[in-house]
Structure formats: structure tokens, C-alpha cells
Amino acid sequence: RNFYSQLPSLGLMANPAEELDVNPPIREPEEEEVVEELNGDEEGEEEEEEEDNEGEDDDTESKSQTRKGRSSADRINAESLFRRMRAAPVPVRVHDVIVRGNQKTKDHIIEAELEAAREATTLQELLEASRVANSNLRALDIFDSVNITLDSGPPELPGTTNVVIEVVESKSPLTGQIGVYTRAEARSSSLEASLKYKNIFGYGDIWDGSIVHGYDNSAEVGLGMYLPRFRGFSTPFTSRLYLSTQDWLKFSSYKERSLGLSLGLLSSKYHELVYTIAWRNLIDPSQAASASIRRQLGHTFLSALKYTFKFDQRNSYLRPTNGYAFVSTSQIGGLAPDSRSLRFLKQEIDLRYAVPFGFYNTALNFGVSGGVSFPWGSGYQNRPSSVPERFFLGGNSSPLCSLGGPSALWGFKTRGLGPNEPRRKGDSERDFVGGDAAVTAFADLSFDLPVRWLRERGIHGHVFASVGNMAKLSENEFRNFSAPKFLETVRTSVGAGIVLPTSVFRMELNYCHVLKKQEHDQARSGVCVTFSASS
User: Fold this and answer.
1) What is the pLDDT of residues 215-257, one digit of tens each?
2) Rounded CA gap, 232 and 99, in Å?
3) What is the CATH number of domain 84-169?
4) Which of 265, 352, 372, 425 has its CA 20 to 30 A from that of 331?
5) Exposed, middle or buried by CB within 10 Å (0-12, 13-18, 19+), for 400?
6) What fold, for 174-533?
7) Boundaries of every domain in the chain
8) 9 CB contacts (<8 Å, ≥6 apart)?
9) DSSP characters for 42-80?
């Protein structure tokens, strides 16, 4: 049973099942009577000192030989174990899970991450399950360190092991940060501050508060809570209470104010389910809104369930050179009986694929995304869709990074294309009112530059092309929709540039040429700089 050894590459430690002592134990000297000699000479004392020194040297040498013997035995046993693991599965059964070091955190929060380890039947399965558990426990962000050890089970139960988890809880449960961030899709910056308090009640809970103030007069105050386990469910539970203001006066002549609560009901590797309830108010301080925007001003009630399926196998979010991704988002609004409740159905899909060419790190990325939103309920064909639930295209960001649905197009300004209406008399500008259906596609060919200094820093070149369009379907407009007309009014742009990736965002210095646009679209050809964060 002495086959465990240290496994640092897996982030685990394993102790020998039994310590095999190859040297006999060192016997302690028996207690002797001390006899004082009144007439002792110096030679006798010197002989006694020499004998004492020789005894100490013998003890040191014996202990050193014992350590060397044990180390040699452990090494031999470890090599034997690895040979057995390579040859065939090594049967083992978990007898117990022991948690140490948690002064505040509940045992069941930690033990829940070892459920797969309890069911392991081989050493290989146990090591993999322990590695995953180690990673998951660190991801809870409430421990300074996590160490998982495999130790021997009871002597009367051969072939068993105990999994020992030693944790060190965070010494500083209160953390905060402040920074200035750029919101590329709105071409604005914001000052954001947040404060987190971890593990208040010992359930791995994280409580946070945040304040966001945008230079475009947008703002948000939020309070959130995160629980890794809730009433036995295997997925985390999140909730967030927020009060927000979004300023779209420049583009669509309205401000959106919302007071709401968002509940994360399901969150796993591929699936997410969120329920949102909010009281929303659209206002027009400028008194210049177009007719369709004015009809939607006032209070509405949002009660919506949103399901997202996301599968992303790309090797990078900011510069993919291999892999593919798919996202599908389904949303239904109007789950409350209130007459002012927004009733709508919304579906978005996004497909990405990266093809490596095998030279100069060249890769072709292309993507297609689409979405449709439509009201439901009595008289839905004649009713307009809610403006905040419509699609808006354009923005100062790269389509390569905006995974989730149709949004960005190179060369077009934020909310700079699609259905639009003139504002009140005396105002020459127009309101972009959004579309009920939208489709975008892009292709991006990236490649390394021939300068070594640039390649080492990830700076590379790319050429790109993008197309997109949207249409109105509500208020019986779907009767006038036709595919040839939709393709005839599609917007297109091409360009080339240099990409400067960082650990958190992607910066592009591009020359973009708009090949096709429609009347009143806000687009221009020329040099532009874009900043994009991965979605």
C-alpha cells in the first residue's frame, strides 16, 4: 500500500500509505546514576567529553541514514506506482474526506467539490477528480491556498484512501477596486468602483456593491450576492439589485431608467438561466424625440426569463487561430399579469469559426449572427416592439470580440444604421429606432508581421470585411418584408490594420472603407481606432 508520492504537476500531494522504516529504531540510553568523585582527575573528564561527542556523531549519522533510506524507499515506491498507472488502472476506493483549516467556511461547501472523487474507483480517476476540485475551490475566491492530500485509509480496509483537504481562508475578506473603463459599443468611458466582502456567513457567499458613472451621463448602483451552492443545487445562485440610467439621447432621443432585480437560477459550463424583474421608465428631456419614440415614453414593467447556451472551443478570445464557438440566447418577456408588462419573444444566435493556415500564425476567422424580436399577446401584429428590446448595429468595437448576437460593424458609428425617423420640427437630426430582425457577418484574416519585436509582443496585422442589415417586423411591417429587398439594402465595409492585444482588451488601428451604406446612415471611410473586450 506504500505507493503514493508527491504529484506537484497536478497541484496535489500524496503521502505514503505506510512509512516503511528500513533502519532499526534508535534506542534511547538508559538513565544512569551520577556518581560524584571527589578526587577525580582532568583526564577522566576529557575522556567523558570525547565519549559524549562520539555518541552525538553516531546519533546524527544514524538519523541521516534513516532519512536517506526512507527517501530511497519512497522513490522506489513512486516509480513502481507510475509504472502501474501507465500499464493499467490502479483500483482504489475513497474511505473518507477530511477537511482542515476552515474556521468559518462550512464543511459541506468544501466537501461538495469532492463528490466526483468519492465516486472514483481508480487512482487515475481520483487524481483527476482531485485536480478539478482543487481548481474549483480556488475559483471560489475565498481561500488564500488549497492543498489536497491523498493519505492511507484504515489498516483493516486495504485498498482505501482518505482525501485530506487543507485550506487557508482569506486573511483579507474585504477587497475593493476602482478604475476607468471604455464602453466601446457606446463610445464612452466610465468611472467604476466596487467593494466585495467574502464569506460572511461561511457558505462561500460573496457580497458586492458597485457604483458606475459614465461620462455620457449614464450611471448604475448595484448590490449583488453570490452563493456557490443553494439548497442542495449543484449550480451557483446569484442575485443583483440595481438602479441604472442609460443615456441614448444622442442616438435615439431617450433616457432609460430601471430599478430591478436579477436572479441567476442556473449557471454551468454551457447553460445559464436568468430571471429579471424591473420597473422601467423612458423619458425625453430634450423634448425632440421622433413620433415612434414619443409613443413609448413612460413606465413599463419587465418580467423576463433568459436562457443562454454557450459552447466556445476557440483557443483565444482576443485572437482566435483555431476552434469554433456557438451561442444561442432565448428570451421571453411578459411573465407577469400586469397590463403594463412587456410581452415579447427574442431569439439570438452567433456562430464563429477559426481556420489556421499553418504559416506566420495566419488564421481566417468568420462569423454569422442573427436575431429576431417580436411582441406576443392579444393584437400582437399591430403592436410595436419595445425599443430597448430591439437590435441596434454599429459601434466602436470589433465584431471578432462581440460574441452573443448581431451588434458591431466596422466603419459604422454606434446606432448608426437601420430604421430611423426625423425628430420634431426644427431639429435636422434623426432618431435611430432599431430593428426587429438583424443579421451580420464578418471575415477577418490575421497574420504575424515580419518584425520579430512585434511578433514577441503579439502585435499582428489583419484584413477584414463585414456586412449587416436589419428590418422592422412589428406593426404589420412583416408583411412588407422580402429577402431580395433585405439583401439590396445590406451595408458592407472592408479594411486593414494593426492589432495590439493586451491581457484584457484588443486595440485595433485600422483603415476602413465603407463600400455600401444607405441614406441617413452614420458611417465614414478613413483611419479609426477601436477598443474591444471579449464578450
Assistant:
1) 777 889 999 999 987 766 778 899 999 999 998 998 999 999 9
2) 19
3) 3.10.20.310
4) 352
5) buried
6) Porin (2.40.160)
7) 84-169, 174-533
8) none
9) HHHHHHHHHHHHHHHHHHHHHHHHHHHHHHHHHHHHHHH
